[in-house]
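Closing statement on the zinc ion sub-project.
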Amino acid sequence: MKLDFCYDQHLHSRHSFDCQTPPEDNVRAAIDRGLAGLIFTEHFDPHPEEWRECVYDHQTYTGTIRRLREEFGERIFIGQGVEVGYYRERLDFTLDFLADGGFDCVILSLHAIDHRLLHLRESWENLSVPEGSRRYFTHLLEAVEFARDVNRRGRPVFNVLGHLDLVKRYTRRFFADESVEANADVIDRILHACLDAGLIPEINTSTWRQGLDEPMPGSAVLRRYAELGGRAISLGSDAHRADDIGAGFDDALLLARASGLSYVACFRDTRPQLVSLNLD
Ligand SMILES: [Zn+2]
Ligand SMILES: [Zn+2]
């Protein structure tokens, strides 16, 4: 399938603490995949345990983007974005940072339930799959409602909702179980808030590479989003290796269309361009 109408707008390079990939390798891979663009979305995570490692360096990152645009800018759109971890105690700090950012696309993500980082096994001690999942979705609702209130004040600050049902990645890994359907009521409220906020959910294809049988979110949530009036989605591989840029996009586009969605949103300067799902 041709991918020359869409961007991969969730990916990392060595400017993220958990990734070693040279950014130019990502650009070359995106050109090879035939994508119209890629947007780097390096981690900015004010959660105290993540922040110690996160070491987000805006100046160096911006210099890299400038250099890549000079070298490859005629062949592909290269965006500068950021994946912001929602952390209740440092929202002013987060907003101050974003006010000066000059980003193409800002992803809002939740990686922790309060102080428990989802990806750590010890965070799940004394926490059942249903209880942890409930807490995750409730917390995510709070994050999305925060983004909605911020976006309503003026020019949108948050553009994409990252990996909506991320919790299933870790409950599957640690317990071979998930509790997403049981939270359909909270997910409905999350989707309504996304629509009110102009926050576009992504289809994050990374779980397909990790042995799960669906992306984040899965088809039931995507269908529900379309039923509630959602029309557009964002596409993100969440690649931490250049080989994974654009991975799973064919299947993601087919799934989006089968779920009743019509557009892919491609961001530049935080403004979405809606491109028809053109799957020939
Ligand atoms: Zn993430
Ligand atoms: Zn990511």
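Residues 159 and 198 are 7 Å apart (CA to CA). With this model delivered, the sub-project is considered complete and its resources will be redirected to Aim 3.
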